[in-house]
Amino acid sequence: MEQEKKLELGSEGQVNGIMNGDQQLSEEELNDLLVKTDSESNFRKDSGWKKYLVDILCAILGIFLLCANYGPPFSISTTMTKIIALALVMALGYLIYPRNRKAARGNAKAMDFLLAIVGAAPCIYLAFNYNRIVNTMGSVGNTTIRVLGLVLVVLLFFLCRRTHGWALPIISLIFMVYALFGRYMPGLFLHKGIPLERLLDKLFLGQDGIFGTPLGTGVSYIFLFVLFGTLLSETGLSDFFNDLACSIAGKASGGPAKVAVISSGLMGMISGSGAVNVCTTGVFTIPMMKKLGYKPYFAGAVEAVASCGGQIMPPVMGAAAFILAEYVGYSYTSVMYAALIPAILYYISCFLMVHQEAKRLGLKGLPPEEIPNFKKVIISQGILILPILLLVVLMCEGKTAKFAVYFSMAALIAENILLGVLSKKLHLGNFRLLTPKNYWDILVRGTKTSLGMMISTAIVGIVVGVISMTGLGLSLANYIVKLAGGNLFFTMLFTAITVIILGMGLPFTPCYIIAATVAAPALVSLGAPKIAAHMFVLYFCATAAFTPPVATAAYAASGICNDSPWKVGYTALRLGVAGYLVPFAFVFCPQLVLVDVNLEIIWICFTAITGIYALCCATIGYLRDPLNIVFRILLFAAGVLCVYPETFTDIVGLAIFGVIFAVSIFKKKPSKVGQT
Q1: Which residues, 6 or more positions from 308, have their beta carbon under 8 angstroms from its beta carbon?
Q2: pLDDT, tens digit, for every residue of 265-280?
Q3: Are 179 and 466 in contact (CB under 8 A)?
């Protein structure tokens, strides 16, 4: 999940003393960069009694959700949990987020307080009259309910504009207009139209509207794992990941780039935001890559591509993975298993890309004195990872994700207290003993961090509700299949393009929800397993964050590497080419997502890795020596053939790769006599 949007700072407000060119990045500069690339981080800088009020409301929401999700002895229904949570989210949203990114980020004004009260009012009314409304559901459509429903929808639009910009509110508004005026729509979009009264009843009271599955997932799994990630980060785990990655790959050719891949992959276990990952690990890895000799835009692109993998990296993936589990009817543990091999393939492609670039440029590793000792890192800091291992073990043992995260948080707190007693004897590096104030700050910050996702899941409920009422999802799925001529490959291609376009304007989670509702059924109708179809959509939602022209992760990286966002974005597109092919592979071969898996998976993984290696060589233009254009084209073709899971294509691809590899081995080296 998304870790807290607060960057780890060293003394004097400098980020671990890491240099950005000739300038050190200050705390304010990094936070401003994060605000520009991740709108959910655009919090007000409250002070005085208003800050205390916001903190108290955040704590109330956090404690309420911790109790409500725990279950007995707290007997709160799921629907009531969503209603009360949204009331607090609406109030906090208007108090925490300024009107827009350019507006002053000072204290909330009187108008913000008024909007907070009015925004929360419909949910408060619904909470107090819930039993009466449920008992009279057949005749509840009175004017008061509909007016309150309209107020909630309108203020949810404006609040979402503050947190995510115009794209998501406009898309939701278009769907509402489509629902109202369906009788005037052309072709496949034609339907009889839905009266405003019925539409408001559905969105305000229905299980497929604002209080539907997306919001339910947001106030339960997403909140809990965000809080867990915030707690983990506060204990110094991100420092451990950086030190561990340095000790593993620092000596290797092009070491810092490999450190970026490894540390971003490790951070993916506790973070699910590409831009936040870039701003967390990138301030450490990008300057190291530049110092070693990588071009600034290449260093930024490596970090962007590696960071976006956090959203598909088990055990704790992006927020949308929890919604995916609800949609496909899987436990989160099953989703985690299904995502494992594709995520490993993704990071193998990242690692090989930077390896080949380092070989091409003749880059060496870090100096020995700058590389932490692996044994010392494990001994002094390795214990910090035990809560994550406990989380994984519990879920693998069949425990629910909620049980696992509660137990792991409790274990983390107990571990921190125990280590606080023993820290002087154990000589723990980067250990942070949490005080009561730290726990209060974690609760407040974790709740703040999850607000943006709760808002987006609430407003996406409008889109889901309209699709459910009009049958648009089935119509679009049939149209995509028809447009592709019933061909699975072209259906995947059109779906990928659709998802990437959506991802250019939408955050990861709402992008997945809309795309999964509209596009995934097309793949399922052509025989793709449901888990593979939804994972396909999830992957392209993640890659959209570094796909130009709108590439938020690349934009964040460009601010750190001090180079053009366009150069970073298009280099990331080139580096991520193998990652774009992995989703096609697991739809054609569902064994990669552990559907009907058998021993053949060993061969499939071998050919997939070989194909990824061939693609990396073709993209970088280097195998054992620089490659000419003919060999690059042949290697690219060989890579695609190997990634495509068919015996014939695998053999042909391996043969082409084998011949080119043999030529590179026996190729006569040019004489260096007379060369300067």
Answers
A1: 274, 277, 542, 543, 545, 546, 553, 576
A2: 777 655 556 666 777 7
A3: yes
